[in-house]
Structures are given as C-alpha cells and as structure tokens.
UniProtKB/TrEMBL annotation:
It holds the Pfam family RsgA_GTPase. It comes from the Bacteria. Its cofactor is Zn(2+). Residues 69-237 form the CP-type G domain. NCBIfam families: ribosome small subunit-dependent GTPase A (TIGR00157). CDD domains: S1_YloQ_GTPase, YjeQ_EngC. SUPFAM superfamilies: Nucleic acid-binding proteins, P-loop containing nucleoside triphosphate hydrolases. Its EC number is 3.6.1.-. It is found in: Cytoplasm. It comes from Rhodoferax mekongensis. Keywords: Cytoplasm, GTP-binding, Hydrolase, Metal-binding, Nucleotide-binding, Ribosome biogenesis, RNA-binding, rRNA-binding, Zinc. It is an enzyme of class 3 (hydrolase). This is Small ribosomal subunit biogenesis GTPase RsgA.
Amino acid sequence: MNQHLLEPGLVVAGHGRHVWVETPDGRRLICHPRGKKSVTVVGDQVLWKATQDEGTIEKVLPRRNLFYRQDEIRTKSFAANLDQVLILIAAEPEFSESQLSRALIAAEAERIRPIIALNKSDLAEPFGRAWDRLGIYRDMGYTLLPLALKPKAEGALATELALLLELMQGKTTLVLGPSGSGKSTLINRLLPHADVLTNEISTALNSGKHTTTSTSLYWVDEAKTTAVIDSPGFQEFGLNHIDPMHLAGLMPDIKAHAGDCKFYNCSHLHEPGCGVLNQMKEAPGAGGISANRYKIYSDLFAELSQTRY
Ligand SMILES: Nc1nc2c(ncn2[C@@H]2O[C@H](COP(=O)(O)OP(=O)(O)OP(=O)(O)O)[C@@H](O)[C@H]2O)c(=O)[nH]1
Ligand SMILES: [Zn+2]
C-alpha cells in the first residue's frame, strides 16, 4: 500500500457499506470500507484512497470515544469522537425515565458529557410536570435546559436557542431523543439548509432506494468548528456492554451512597450494611435516590446480569 496516496477525511454520514467522507478542503465523496477493519461510524477520522470516482477507506484513526448501545442481537454505534450528547426530550410525548437513564449511563460509560434539553415549554402544564420530574437529574449535576423549538413567542426561542448554541460552540454534539421530541425541528433551526443536505446525502447513498440515512454530521458554523450529529430515535436502548458491577458508578445518585457500603463489591441489592439501601430505608427520596431511580438501577442490574454467563 502506498502511503502517499492516502488522504485524510471525516466520516459525515454512514449507511451500511457506503459512507460519505469529507476532505479537509470541504469536498465530499462516497467511500467504501476495505474489509472489516475499516468499518466506520459518523465522526471517524479516516485515511482513504481514491478509486475511479469514489474511494476506499484504508484506515480508521484511533477513536477518542464511541457512543453505542448493545442488545442481545446487535451492537449499534451512534457516532465517534464526541464532545457531548444532547438528550432531547419533550413535554409531550411523555418521556420515559428509564430511557433517559439508559442514555445517561451510556454517555457516562464513555465519559461523554450529557446535556438534557426539555422541549415544548409552550405546553405549560405537561411541561411543568416533566420539568419537575427532571429535578432529580439537575440535582445529580446534569445540565438541564428548557427549550421551545416551535413556540408561539419568537423572543423566547431566540434566548433559549442562543444558550444552547453557546453550549455547543466549538464542540461536536450528538442529538439523541425519542420520536416526536423535536430532533428534526432542532436541526432545521440550527441549520435551515439541513433539509437540502439530508436529501442530497440520502439520494447519493441510497442511489434511489427508499431508505433514510441513519446518522449525519452537519457543520453549524462556516469555520467548521461546531458540529451537530443527528441520529434516529432511541428505542430499546440496550446496555449489554456494561458490567452490572459498574452500573452504580455510572449513576451519580446511587454512586453518592455506594461509598458507604460495608462490602467493597456490594451490589446494593440485598447486602447488609449497604449505604444505598440504608439511604432508601432511612431517608427515602431525601438523599437524592428516588424510588424510580432505584428501580431503574435494580432492573438494569438484573437485565445486565442475565445476559452474562
Ligand atoms: N408545541 C410544540 N411543538 C413542537 C415544538 N417543537 C417541535 N414541536 C412539534 O413536535 C412534533 C415532532 O417534532 P419533530 O422535530 O418532527 O420530532 P423528531 O424528534 O424529529 O421526531 P422523529 O422524526 O419521529 O424522530 C412536530 O409536530 C413539531 O412541530 C415546541 O417547542 N412546541
Ligand atoms: Zn451497597
């Protein structure tokens, strides 16, 4: 292999064995991975080689992190080399706390900073309820942001969006969220031309087939320092790659009491002298572990133990 023919690039969209690579001077071309070792995800830095009109990916450079989920059947990688994950939920449809927790745990496991944004603040009543449910997550130290991506009052939109943009400035952010939370609306607000780009990428990658691309990276600014990556919804957020004994360390409210346990390898499920169980018994809710969160912990612990032999 002649090293001189290799050029650097960034994977900006992926679809099976066709990926869209952007060169440092802004050109985009379709590349095909050569063999299993060069299978990429969006956000990957690669070295590629030109073929007649397309390219082959010869090498994937080492990843800083890889955000993914894993269930019994498959591993689904979302993206690599992320600075943060924006978990976008909304007043309506009502969000699942279990799904939110799973996304947060996946981010913690890869040491990627999560930001939680609650959209549709114009729907006052359901928004108030959802905001209250999120209070414990703010107490755990997560950044929590209200949003109205499609509000009646334009002024509110501008301030909230400006705040979000400030958090995104100079970073690569993966946007995750359940169906209907407003992901497309957000992308369109951030980049009014994204629609065009999405279609362009879909057409090129699917060569006319009727499938939507999975994940794409968009530049928010002209200088290409701020990037946003969208991804399809996050149903069945499997965490099979996580050892159940590491779970407590990835849930800040549980972790806060796990240091008080008598046994260093406490599972916080039944052991005597368990700091987490004592907290639940003596001051339920007061020390930051809600009944809901403890249930999410114990259910997940069981789920992750089952899939391990
Ligand atoms: N009331 C209200 N509705 C909103 C707001 N933002 C988005 N919506 C609406 O919520 C619906 C869902 O928004 P989308 O942007 O399509 O949501 P999505 O997350 O991309 O959904 P999927 O494509 O299913 O994953 C649309 O009808 C939007 O118009 C908001 O701030 N307030
Ligand atoms: Zn314990």
